[in-house]
Each structure stands twice: as structure tokens, then as C-alpha cells.
Amino acid sequence: MSEEAAPVTYIVTPVRLEYDHSAGNAATLFLRGLAQRKIIGTRTGPGQPVLVPPRGADPRTAELALEAVEVSDKGTIVSYSIVRVPSENIHFELPYVCINILLDGADVPFFHVLQNCPLDEVRIGMRARAHWVPDEQLAPTIASIEYFEPIDEPDVPFDRIREHT
Amino acid sequence: MAIRCGVVGIGQTKYDAKRIDVSMPGLVREAALRALEDADLTFADVDAVVIGKAPDMFEGVMLPENYLADAVGASGKPLLRVHTAGSVGGSTAIVAMSLIQAGIHDRVLTLSWEKQSESNAMWGLTLSPPFSVAVVAGAGGYFAPLIRSYIQRSGAPEDVGIRTALKDRQNALKNPYAHLRIEGIDFDQIANSPMLWDPIRYLESCPSSDGACAMVVAREELALKAPRPPAWVLATAMRSEPNQFPGRDAVNPQAGQLAARDLYKQAGIGNPRREIDCAEIYVPFSWFEAMWMENLGFAALNEGWKMVYEGATALDGDLPVNMSGGVLSSNAIGASGMVRFAEAAMQVRRQAGEHQLDDVKIAMGHAYGGGSQYFALCLFGVEKP
Amino acid sequence: MAEGSGGEVLRGPHVLEYPYRRSLGPALGRFFTGLRDRRFEGIRSRSAGVIVPPQEYDPDTSEALDEFVEVGPAGAIVSWTWVTRPRKKQPLDHPFAYALIRLDGADASLLHVVDVGDESRLATGVRVKPRWAVERGGGIRDIECFELEETE
Amino acid sequence: MRDVAIVSFAQSNTAREDRNEVEILIPVVQEAVKRSGLPRGEIGFTCSGSSDFLQGQPFAFVMALDGVGAWPPVKESHVEMDGAWALYEAWVKIQTGEVDSALVYAFGKTSSGDVAEVQALQLDPYCVTPLWPDADSIAALQARLYLEGSARTERDLADVAVRSRRDAMDNPHAVASGATDAETLLAEPYRCSPLRDHDCPMTSDGATAMVIVAGDLATRLSERPVWIRGIDHRIDPPALGVRDLSRAPSAERAASRAGVLEAPVDFAEIDAPYTHQELILREAFGLSDGVRINPSGGSLCARTLMSSGLNRIGDAALRIARGEGDRALAHATQGPCLQQNLVCVLEGE
Hints:
The complex is a heterotetramer.
Chain B: E1 5-12, H1 24-38, E2 48-52, H2 65-68, E3 79-82, H3 88-101, E4 107-115, H4 121-125, H5 138-154, H6 160-172, H7 187-191, E5 195-197, E6 200-201, E7 210-219, H8 220-224, E8 231-240, H9 254-267, H10 272-275, E9 278-280, H11 288-295, H12 304-309, H13 326-329, H14 333-348, E10 362-369, E11 374-381
Parallel strand pairs in B: 2-3, 2-4, 9-10
Antiparallel strand pairs in B: 1-7, 1-8, 4-7, 5-6, 8-11, 10-11
Helix pairs in contact in B: 3-14
Chain C: E1 11-23, H1 25-36, E2 40-45, E3 49-51, E4 68-71, E5 75-83, E6 96-103, E7 110-114, E8 127-132, E9 143-148
Antiparallel strand pairs in C: 2-3, 2-4, 5-6, 5-8, 6-7, 8-9
Chain D: E1 4-14, H1 21-36, E2 45-49, H2 60-64, E3 76-79, H3 83-95, E4 101-109, H4 115-118, H5 135-148, H6 154-168, H7 182-186, E5 190-192, E6 195-196, E7 205-214, H8 215-221, E8 226-235, H9 249-258, E9 267-269, H10 275-285, E10 292-293, H11 298-301, H12 308-321, E11 327-334, E12 340-347
Parallel strand pairs in D: 2-3, 2-4, 9-10, 9-11
Antiparallel strand pairs in D: 1-7, 1-8, 4-7, 5-6, 8-12, 11-12
């Protein structure tokens, strides 16, 4: 009756959508800053909390937060996790440590990856600094910060960072 | 007072890594039919349909409910599509209940689903656009640091997660719909399973499932005529908060606390630990049970883990949690929130079969989504509110 | 507005791509198996007569459908439009028509493409027949396109 | 049923936005909240509409929470639909008595994707999407069926475009506008026969926000609240080859349930992205020729996916609040070829 006996039970329908994506003002400030080896946060106005990475608003007041403020590329680890599962866009050798780091001058933790630190030495309160790509490779992309690595400074006591953990 | 609303029909599909025996219409149909049969109704008896689902990228169909209209008997009727991230199954049920409570419809079919095997959940959850301002390490990568913070604050022993997962996985053996039913599951098997995002091990994490869950909710007069006793809706509550801002406590989020307080106030509950008989809560990674016990006010601050240790949340404990095996055992992301509500309602209707508890008067359904930001809660009772 | 070099907002490509794999169930399984074997299967429904492609549930009453009916292969154009500059993913790389085609024996119409060279040869009611793809078993594109019935 | 009124409305629409969704939403939400006269913290419920596929990223609406005042935590929900359905969900929440007011918003950056192609994902994923028909071609199949089944001609379509573009000249949020005439338009080549460029929507980016309030609170807040007298929505079966595309039965049903014909309407804001769809919908609603259609220029002249339906309702409400008419029909559509339709009847005091 039919040329091939086995019935068709599934089909593959490839979908490919191309977008011309615009980053918005906040992301542009942040990423152009990285291209100049600077970490730029934003705030709604003078004296207000500095948000890193900037997403355009201070969510507590729903006001535009587009006033650029440079923060340090050093900070304190407020939480972390040792990742042993591959992820689409992170190409570090497994396992690696992902961290929430409160950069000096920022008021919200920043999520990135920690390297050059034995897994059993990672701890909350630890000090770390950004490891930038070589200057000629700096570009408006999060990858301009290759990773964070520990620095020789005393740990920050848990009580001083409790609200950020 | 809003019009009283009761759950008169519940239907679930078998949750599985891949349901290659059905099309997308067939999957949602399976749950819808079972809910209608449970209520002894047909599609013609339904006035409106409310569908919930997580991101459409999982199936690669934009607003798929338009295509599913005839599979769920929606032709000529109102059809709403809710999407509130992981809590969507819960918030979808609440929207359906509000159509009854507002006196707009007499019977509403609500259904939530995901067919993740059309693509792959990990791909869907780690999509990061150009110019993203943060590294993306998947759901576990986001939640594991929160668990690390909880352990730091509460001083909880390292095996709390393993004990929680063991409880849920043993419960799943009593649930024919569950995706992961691991015969002979024991402590060591979980403890030795590979660590994914420290401190979360493989068997402490939820699977990716295909599946759908449906409920029929009805107005009081019709609920009273249903063939099986209804689960009365005593109270519902929803709260959302932004993802990241100075001083945000993502470990014990304010939105969850406020939703719980609102729920208890509506239902006149003074001591939730004592007055609520059991709870189905959204635990995609084992540690979240301990965290949600505190967030929901069942345990004092930093003491949620003790409930796991003392066996309070076991089937024979004073507050059994996730009798169905929970999200750890089945996770069709869009459906999981509604499965929590449905399983709580099944306990009240004495429909939970092997994992049925004795004498359940009040049961809680709980769902959360996003970065612990979206909360949808419901209390079901044997008695009318 | 933006500090640092260049004020305007960053823009760039973003691609959303996945080879979705869809299980078919009874109705679509039978339809696509038919296409592989160069046959059209429709399904009988109370509210809309014979529907192609076959669907699992009645469009109006939602009752389950299971009575398959072979239809076509030729049919008549019910409606059409002309694509002057085909997009990359569209089935033909030269101007063609999207059309709703009522296959002989069916009541509802099937959406597909028609290759006739020139728009002027198209009109509602024109008879067309399928041109089958060489490689089949992959779904709706087992039909490469439809063409005018009178072409050999 | 509780009487619920629209007390404020704000929108922004441009051809291309480079701001992100939060940056677009904030000024619009702030304006709507300010105009409502209610402090943000006292608005009982928040509900929004959007679609992840417009930007090609999941959870786009999660980021939007940053810009709408979700702190302290709010009672909030989201529909993966046009904002008009978020309005419906908010209206229902008020009817339960649990809240007395709601902020409704919607947003979309239609220009970042190839929207004609993105909408192919709204079709039958098994048998139609793999043919990748662009949205205009799908609409053209409907247009031909409608024209060949009625006494209408391509000239009637051009007349809709001429009127819409002229009216759009008074609407700062329209993307296309201008004085023209049918002959000039009909001289243009087809985009996809029988539709020409002027028959197809001008896509736009933007955001929309509205505050609705129940009963006497509305009369205290606004000298001329715009009451939602009736609101209903319905859906038709999905298969294009099964439906009679020259009609919109779900629109007919929603209109009758919303009480459109209980009294004459002064004007109608119809969410018709294509000119032939306005004609189909006017017949569905039984509107006489005397009723003014789309004084704002309509979705033909500015179509921000996921908010242009809510914009039709907002534009109608603004016009009533300004005293230019006492009763209006406002409509929103969703899905291919008018598959799903919402109708609401608005009345001034």
C-alpha cells in the first residue's frame, strides 16, 4: 500500500527569527563604560542608590535611573555557587564559581564568575576584583570583564553585608 | 461578599520527559477531558476558558492558545491567556476563580500546560540577548546563591536539602501522574547524585516535563450539585515585586510574606501551622521547602529547616508538604503552579488516592515565579467560606 | 545622554533559533504519513464537513473526530495572494502565490503555495494539483507546491 | 455589576524606539497615574499585556515590573495578550470587590523583529508556520475572500486609508498620516494583491497605560469619568481554511454581549490593522454609515503589537472625556484574521 510502512510520528519545524535589538539607554551607558575599562552604574539622582548593572529604573520608586556613576571594580562577595552544569553562554571550565559581588560604591550586588580561587576557599565576605580582558580587546560587552579573582584584603564581616546576602 | 466558588473537576496528564504520543492539542485535551469527566460535565457546560503557560519559546508558537481553541472547547467563548512566569499555573487558576466570584460566569475551565520536549528547557531558560548586562547561568545559577545565603543565615545543616528531596521522591511513588518515580530511592542515592549548582545536587532539582493540569471551577449553587464534593475556595492572594533593588531580600521575599498574610486574613486563620492541614508548595530545588516554610509563616525566621528535620512536613507530620511529590518530581513549568492548587484541592475532596491524607479540612496551594518575585496562593476547604 | 564615546544607543543582531521537534498525535500523524505516500487525508466533522488538514476536534462542538476521508489530490483555489519578493524561508525563491485550496472531496480549504509563473494566470476557482517533493516524510513541505492542473 | 470608569490614559508611539521597555514605560505610567489623581500606592491591582516574541526573549514582562511601581509588593498579573485583555482581567478583579482601582499597561517593541515573519508563529505550527507566510499575505487571503463575496471594491479599502490618514494628522501618536486621495493610493502597486501598502498597518513601538476605578471613587477623581458600560470578548476556531474569513462571528457575539446595539453610538475606535478588516468589523457590529470610525486614525496608522487594542479603548475614552461624544464602541483584536475580538461600550456621564 505505502512505499514505507512506518508511519510519520513527528516533524521538525526549524524556527529562526532575526532581531535588530537596541540596548536602551541604561545598558548602553554600562556597556560603553566597560569598553573604557569602567564599571558604570546609574541612579535616579544625587544621593540615591547606585544600581549595577543599570536596567533603566530604580524599581522601588519606578523612576528613571539614567544618571551615570562609576563604581570600583573591587568588591565583596555576598553570595556564590559552584556551578558544575554547562550553560549556553558561559565557557569556563567546569566547575567554576558564580558570585554575587557588592562592588565598592554600588548598592546592589552584581552577578559574575570567580576564577583563580580554590573551590573550598570561596566564602561570603571575601574581597575580589575584576580581571579585564587586555585593553585592545575591550568592547561594549559584558565579556570585557573576563572574571573576578580574589584580592589580598581582609574579609568584610557578615553583619556589614547581611542585607545584601 | 464575592460569589462563592468551588473546584468541581480536576484533571492531570501523566507528566513525562517527552509525551511523544500526543500533539499539543492532544496534551491539553487529556487534562481538560479528565477535569470535565470528574465534574460529570461536557465542553458545552463551560462558559469560558482561562489558559496559563510559561514562555512560548519552549514550544515555538506565539500565543498557542489561539491554535488550541477547539481542543479546549473555546469556540464562541471567552478565552484568556495568563503568563506570570513560574507562578502562572496558580495565577491562572485565580483569574478563573475571579470570573466566578465576580458573577460573570457560572462554570469556567482553567488549564495550564507546557510541552518542553518540543525544544529544551535549559535552552529556553538561558536565552540571553546581545547587550545583556549580566551573565546568565540558568535557573539553578540564580537560585543556588540564594540557598547559600539561607544556609549562612539559618545555620541549617548541609543535608536539609537531601532530606526534603527524599521525602518528596518517596511521596512521588504514591502518585501515578508523577514524572520521576524512582523505586527504592534513598538518602545516599540523593547525597551521591552529581552536584549541579552548589549546594544543589541533581536529585535535589526538578526535572523538565511535558504535561497539563486542568480544573473546572463553578458557582456555589452548581458546585453543590456536582457529583463529588467540591473543594471550596476559601481565599486567594497574589503579590509581585521587582527582581533586584537595594535592600531586597530575595531569600525571604516580601511579596511572599504579604501574599500569605493576605490569604490568612481573608480566611480568618490565626495560626497557619495549626489550622492548615497540608500544603502543596512550589519547590523546584529541595532547599526551597525550608525557605518557604518561613516565608509562609509556618516556621519562625531561620527555623524552617527544623520542620524538615523533625518530619513535620512528612505524610505523617503535623503539616504534610508536597504529598504529590511536588515540583521536584514533575515540572511542566507552565502547569506546575496549577498542579499545586489541584493537588491541594484533591486532598480536600479525598481524591488523592495513595497519597491521600486523613481528615483534611483546609489545604494550601502555592506557586512562585521569576527571581522569587511572583506569588500565587490559594486555600481550599471542605466547608464553604 | 550616554557618557563615554558615542552617544547613540547600542544596536545589534539577536537570533532566536531552535529546530522544534513536534510529536503529531493521531490526526496529523495520519495526514503527514499520507503526504509522504502522496495522498491527502481529510477528516469528517459535523460542523465543517471534511476538513483538510485533519484536526483532532470539531471546530464548533469540540467533539473528538476520527473518521478519515481521502480527498484530492487536485482542487480549486478559494483565495490567493501574490508574493513578488519571496523571503528566505518561504517555499519558493521566485514570485509565487499563497492560496487557500479546496481539494476535491473536502469542504474546508488547505493553505499552501502555488507556482504559476505569473499572477495573471490566477483566479478564484482555478484548478490546481500538487507537485510532490522528492524527499518526503517531513511534513507540509512534502508538497513542494501546487501548480495549474492543466500543466503536464 | 459595579460601575467602573476609565479616569486616565497615556500612551507613547513612535516608528522605532531605542529605549528599553522600562525606559519607554516609566513616563507613560507616571503620566497615567498622575492624571488619575490616585497615589500609586493606593491603586489596588496592576495588570499588563505583552508578548515575549516581539523581542525574542522570554520574561520581557518581568523586567517591566521595575518601571511600574511594584514596590512595596503589588497585586499583579500579566496576560500574554493585547493590553485590552489585561483591562478585561482588571475589570473582573474590580467586579469581585477585592479591589476598587487598577493600573493597566501594555508595551511592545514591534520594530526590533521582522514582525511580518514573527506573526507566522501565531499560525498552525504543524501545517502553516513551516510555509512561513508573512502576516500581510495571510491578511490578503482574507481581503480577497471578503471583496469577492461582497459588493465592496479596492476603492472602498482606499477610502478607509484616506480617511484614517487624514484623521491621524490630529493624533501625535500616529506614525503615518497625511492628506491623500483614493486615486493616488490605487495607482500604487500591490504589496500582496489585493492589498497595497496603504491597506497594511504602520507598525510602531510604544507603551500604553490606563487607570480604571470603581463607582463613586471615579466621580470624586474625575469630572467626566468614562464608564465601561459593557465589555465582552470571544474567540473563533483557529483553522483559516475552516473559518468564513469574510466575517468575524466572535466580534458579532462580543458586540451583542457588550450591549452595543442597546443605544446608538456616536463613534467607534476599531482595532483593524488592515483596511478590509475595518469593513468586516463594521458589518459585525451593525454600525450605520453615520457613525464616525477611528477618529484617532486607528491601528492602520500606528500599530504597536500587544497595545494597539488598548490604545483604541484609550483613544475612545479620551475623546468622550473631552466631551466629543457620549457613547462609543471600542474594540481590540488578536490572532490571525480577526480570530479573537474584545468589544467594550464606553459612556460619558
